[in-house]
Request: fold
Amino acid sequence: MTVLGALLLAVLTFGAGAVSAQEEDPHAEVFSETMYPSADQCAGCHQRIYDEWSASAHAYAGLSPMFHKFEQAINSLAPTIGNFCVRCHQGVGTTIGESRATDAWDRNPVSREGVTCVSCHRVNVEYGKVNGSRRMVPGGITEPVYGANKSEPLQEILANPGKHSVTTSSDPNTMGMKIHQDAIEFEQLEKSEFCVSCHQVAVNLGIKLEVVWDQYRASPAHEQGVSCQQCHMGRVPGVPSGYERAHAAELITGPVGEERDHKNHSFYGPGYSIAHPGIFPHHPDAKRWTIKEWLAFDYRAGWGTPEFEDEVPDDYEFPDVWADPIDREDARWIIEDNQRKLAYRDKTRKQVMENGTHMDGPFFDDDPSVGDDLDFHYVMYNTNSGHNVPSGSLGAQPEIWVNVALIDPDGNNIWESGYVDSNGDMADLHSLDVRAGKIEHDDQLFNLQTKFLTTNVKGTDREMYLPVNFDIDQLPFLRPPAQPVTVMNHPPLVRMESRSIPPLGNKKASYSVPGDLMTKPGTYKLAVRTRSRAEPIYFMRFVGATSEMEQAMNENMIDIHPYTVEFEVK
Reply:
């Protein structure tokens, strides 16, 4: 059997996924790095794309602390789920047979890259809704890749390998940077259908957790031929306004070919990282230390900064790995470089949210008067034509809600809705402070977060964090229903309560301030903002998140369209 034949046989064996490849085959890491190349290897020619991808939600998929906490919790509560989640979030790991329970620091480095280059550019079959089950074509860095464009720039390079100091030979002794020997045009990469595999997902007996495709295919954008890529990889985040122009590749000899449409691999969206900034974004120099070593680096304390290092006491105790100040300074440089990438990500995620929504108001029902109830409303618009706001993964996340406050002529905040509790959660039924009686329930809360509703033993529906009824089964075993889900349009005892706004739709947020708070005439102010956060804190605690994760989740919450309106009360 040839070496290639043996490797292909190994692919089939590992793909069966019965046991962990790391446990069974000591060559698994070498195998995966050659047959499923790292994004680091692609950066040699595609540095700009690498930099964009390295801080993206796709790159974060395999390292997200919240994903791992959630995935572990749901598998503990409902063990039949198995590797359902990781086959999207860590496709390479699933392909080579890594156990879903493998710790992040023990995983193959390419598996930790989440949705990496080969996750899309080594796919050559058009898939539809298949819940993340998508096959990558194995092959080393010199094997062909699949792209949305024709390969004229690559042909120019291959015609002059010596000039560009490249090689398509897999022989490690051959001089030159190794590149792929062909770029095969695969048209589906530019179509919305390519995104379906991981962004239209049904779980738990038919509950749809990812619903973007359902929303998109019924949207004006789909009817007009606007693709997901045009909004999420285009020139302007969230707006189909064309693409920037750039070279397909840049070698040490300079850019190659003519400029063409550049697909931004930041994949604009509202998500953000709560991981240690030495671990994410991906950074080639960061691999000098392991994940566990990075977790021991206290970046919040300022390690490695001149301010900290100039004043550090002689008796300050560092972990052994960080005892050398030179190491701390090198690590700080990596963190600051990563924080610049995260700042760009924060800028684009706010842009995509503000470009996709609009708020009008306040509109008063009557002329404001002292002693009378103040009834008013705002109108929130979904200005994007492709999907609901919010979209993506429903249920426990994401959160979008409106925070509005009334300030009297003396500058006092006399009324508010959309306020948060001591943990940072809005004051709904899931707030731990509301449940403990520490704060009042926010009866006028305008919240677009979709909820799961389950029927419990008391015979009523209630909102739940997950589409699993823990009242009935302490260790639920998810079984298919007796009747087709399509008969009831939802599984038995579980359904969704959607509050999102459809494409180009709007919703009214109505409020009423009691008249006994309007005690004096003068100039009042209404301050409003829409708030966006990836996960509620109560849910993070439910899955066992750390306090550091909670802190990062709240720190990165963004406010959309904040503004204040003054009005007179007589």
